[in-house]
Amino acid sequence: MKKSKIIAAILFLAMFSSIFVVAKTYKPIITTNAITTPDISDEPSVEPKAWTPKPLGNKGIWIYNNTGGAITTDGDLSDWATIPRDVFGGVTVYLAYDASNVYVACTWQDSTEDDALSHWNKTGMLNGSAVWEQLAGADDMLAIGFDNGTYKDTWVWTRSIRTDGAHAYEPGDAGTKPFLRNADVNITKPIYDNSTNPIVDDTVLPNGTVYVGWFAQAPTGSQTDVSLAYTYNATGHEMYVVEFSRALDTGNPDDIVLNFTDLTGQSFFVGAANKQDCLSMDVATTAFSLAEGNEAASLTFDIIPNANNVDGALLIHGTVYDDYAGWELTVYLDGWSTTYYPGYYDEADVNLATGNWSYLFFYDQWDMPLGDDKVHVVFYPKYEAPIQFYQNVTIVDKEAPQILGIVDLAERYPDGVSINETTYVTVTVGLQDNYWERDDIEAHLYSYKDDDVALMTPMVHFDPFGTTFSANITLTYTPGAPNEYTYFVDAFDPVLNKVLSQKFYFKVVAEVGATPGFGFIAAIVGLLGASVIIYKKYKK
Questions:
Q1: What is the extent of the structural domain holding 315?
Q2: Residues near 185 by Cβ (< 8 Å), separated by ≥ 6?
Q3: 38: in domain
Q4: Do residues 287 and 202 both lie within one domain?
Q5: In the 8-state DSSP scheme, what is residue 296?
Q6: Is the pTM here over 0.90, yes or no?
Q7: pLDDT number for residue 536
Q8: What would the pLDDT profile of 222-256 be if each residue is shown by its tens digit?
Q9: Which residues lie closer than 8 Å to 188 by C-beta, 6 or more apart?
Q10: Domain count, the chain
């Protein structure tokens, strides 16, 4: 509970006496946010077992041996339920094979289906030739493929008519392509009108003539090696599902013979494009080395020492292991917005050579969450359910506010303060706290003259963004007395951590022959009228 405060009562003499305010009461808001990722079980951490340093693995993507299983290429994932999957290049990928075929399923979110083709637009003439511009389309696309270290086999699906919906386009393979590109060799102008009739003379066409950039046609030959099927929003989640299948050995010389008994040097690549401009069949992809099997992932979280009495920067650590690359290790402290808010977590530092991890919660004065909290560590292995541990902590404030500086009236008035010129002086102090806002600091000015009792005056914080607090000392002058004033400041944070300044001194003087007059009377009335707490005088 905060110390009592008493408000000055006489307003018309406030300019001559102490200034009083009521400081607001502050209570930190401690929030507990449950993690929203599904399939994560909260369980308290236990003292970890002895850990043998173990490098984390670097496997890429798991291709599953599904011999004995059955997969149908129909755009339905129900027959993929037992097949491992994870996200690669923004696409959730399933890979499987059996004795005869390889199977790939890809799913990703897209808020709309887009299949707009690019077009040609005639804009004018130049040196007797027609000038055409390409108007971009917007086509959703997916490209995947395999690389055996020597050759690549690329398979492309488009939402538009550039693929026929039953076969993937295979760049470089023989046979009739699933599309007819409406462009000359240099891709500078169209060669067909919208009915696929050859354009005889484009110089006679009016400006603004628009022709489509692509036509559909039935693929043949090696362009039919890869079967596919797709669905969109079948589950109501705005998801594309595209499935591919192909024989391990197509018998065609332009196809890789796929052999997954030895994965050395083999990789899989994948990339999706939302609203590709339809000016080419290119899609950016990312490659991942092929791997098989999975070792159990692990996570430990070392017990936090003095967890019920955390009063400074908090270093947490433990160990982690996964045999696949692409895992994620996140940490957060409930209620501390710097490390956690919905949808955001911070990542721990991990030594890839040993599996040791650490994270430093570095506290500062702006966002320190005092009180009871939980420190969460969540490990997302590549092919397993997330593993989470938490530990309860109590964060306490043991540090008093910091005094940045106090005005020294003896330096300001080296010859003393003239009672003939003023009946009060203002003392200012700079204060801040390492956990609390400056508005939450309570400061008091103590002052006394000669052997009088000490008067306590609450100090005022005018600017919430500043560090300055101030209060007045009402002055009196007694002929023949030393008229030496002593003052000092104390400050409290909301949990009553206290700081006490050193003592400062100054003298009050009067001009020879002058009478204090009104200043003296006003000071006396101000002291009688002001409500103050009287403390036992602090001796020098």
A1: 298-395
A2: none
A3: no
A4: yes
A5: P
A6: no
A7: 33
A8: 999 999 999 999 888 899 999 999 999 999 999 99
A9: 132
A10: 3
Exposure of 105 in the CB half-sphere (CA atoms within 13 A)? 23
Looking at the fold, whether 386 and 424 belong to one and the same domain comes out as no
Amino acid 404 reads L
What is the rounded CA–CA span in Å between residue 52 and residue 300? 12
- Pair (268, 407) in one structural domain: no
The conformational region for residue 128 under phi > 0 = left, psi -120 to 50 = alpha, else beta, is left
Q: Provide the 10 A C-beta neighbour count for residue 529.
A: 16
Q: Which two tokens stand for residue 439?
A: 């508005």
DSSP-assigned letters across all residues of 383-435: SS--EEEEEEEEE---PPPEEEEE--HHHH-TT-EETTT-SEEEEEEEEE-SS
Letter string b/e over residues 422-461, b meaning 16 or more CB atoms within 10 A of that residue's CB: ebbbebebebbbbbbbbebbbbbbbbbbeeeebbbbbbbb
Low-confidence ranges of the chain (pLDDT < 50): 1-41, 46-48, 365, 514-540
CB 304 within 8 A of CB 375: yes
Task: Output the pLDDT for position 513.
Answer: 57
Q: Is residue 43 part of a domain?
A: no
CATH number for position 134: 2.60.40
Say which amino acid occupies 89: G
